[in-house]
Amino acid sequence: MATSPARKDKHLETLRGMACVLLVAYHVIGNDPAHGMHIDAHDNWRLFTELFIHIRMPLFSFLSGYVFSAIVADRAGLATAIGKKLRRLGIPLVVVSTLFYLCFGLINGGFDGPIWQIYVLPYQHYWYLQATLLIMIGVLVGCHIAGRQTRIFMTALFPLACAVFIAAPVFEPDVLAISSAFYLLPFFLLGQLLRVWSAEREIRAVPARRVPLVLLFGAVVAILFVLDLAQYEGFNQLNFDRQSALGLLFGVSACLFLYLSRIEWRPLEFIGAYSYSIYLFHVFFTAALRRSLGVIFPGITSGVFFVSALVAGLFLPIVVHQVLIRWRWTALLFLGISRPKRPPTATGAESENGHAVMS
């Protein structure tokens, strides 16, 4: 890559931070009136969650695809790469989802089905880890089989993934969130394709190329945003479902616009460095705050609660990360980080924090 690692990382961490803010805000508001702030349909808060549905998780998956290394030399390398992904994603998936299941089951006086289901079927927001594991393992195996034709393989796979995305197949049972894997796959592959074809190097080699592309994708995002808003308000009948042609165009255009914009902002960069920990633990704090504030301040306004829960959901998981990273076993079990026996250097600790989310 022609760009320096520091500059690249700042930009990507900023985008991770943006995705984290959108995700935590979504869970604070709630996906339906029974969760979060108990917001009814067509409320302004609900409008916020609906309009960013084509950016939140697609952006996470796009970034994961961009930093993901799919090239393996041989079968031993393939086994090692899969083992690392199972350690980084699979172990926290099992441990943290179990903790969530037990904590909220005991608090609510009932459990969401038998515990074994949370490991094989989509459970809460942890479906993303299951789906991402399937994608990464599938891409690793496919690239290993393709050999030297890896770039051709992924390029040919992208339009197929887009077609399946729009078809939106439903699997019953949805083992390991396989339907969600097909939902995320186009965005993951988009990130991979930008990386393997060295798109950033080509664009930066001729700076005049980037600005027109930013303007183009920015215009597409703005137009789709307005059309989606009009559809939400009942002014048109366009299909902006999560898995639709317009939804795909919206998500792809947003990812490319944000990627090419080279946005860097220190607060979002800081949040993005802990994106994996925020993803894993934010719901513990947003849910706890909702219950406690409801008891202590029953008349609290929606705005005050939203800001309080958003801050708690973003920053308290960072505190948890700093505690868990101190010991080898907690780092492994809760964060999927394999630490050496000796204390890591400052550079090593930073690398585990930064490039975190599903990379």
Please describe the topology of this protein.
Elements: H1 5-29, H2 44-51, H3 56-67, H4 75-108, H5 117-120, H6 127-146, H7 150-167, H8 178-196, H9 199-205, H10 210-232, H11 245-261, H12 266-272, H13 275-296, H14 302-324, H15 328-335, H16 346-353
Helix pairs in contact: 1-2, 1-3, 1-12, 1-13, 1-14, 3-8, 4-6, 4-15, 6-7, 6-8, 7-8, 10-11, 13-14
Structural write-up:
The chain is mainly alpha-helical and 359 residues long. It has one domain (5-260). It is built from 16 helices and no strands. It has helices at 5-29, 44-51, 56-67, 75-108, 117-120, 127-146, 150-167, 178-196, 199-205, 210-232, 245-261, 266-272, 275-296, 302-324, 328-335, 346-353. Helix 6 (127-146) runs antiparallel to helix 7. The longest helix is centred in the first third of the chain and has 34 residues, at 75-108. The radius of gyration is 20 Å and the shape is globular. The two termini are 18 Å apart.
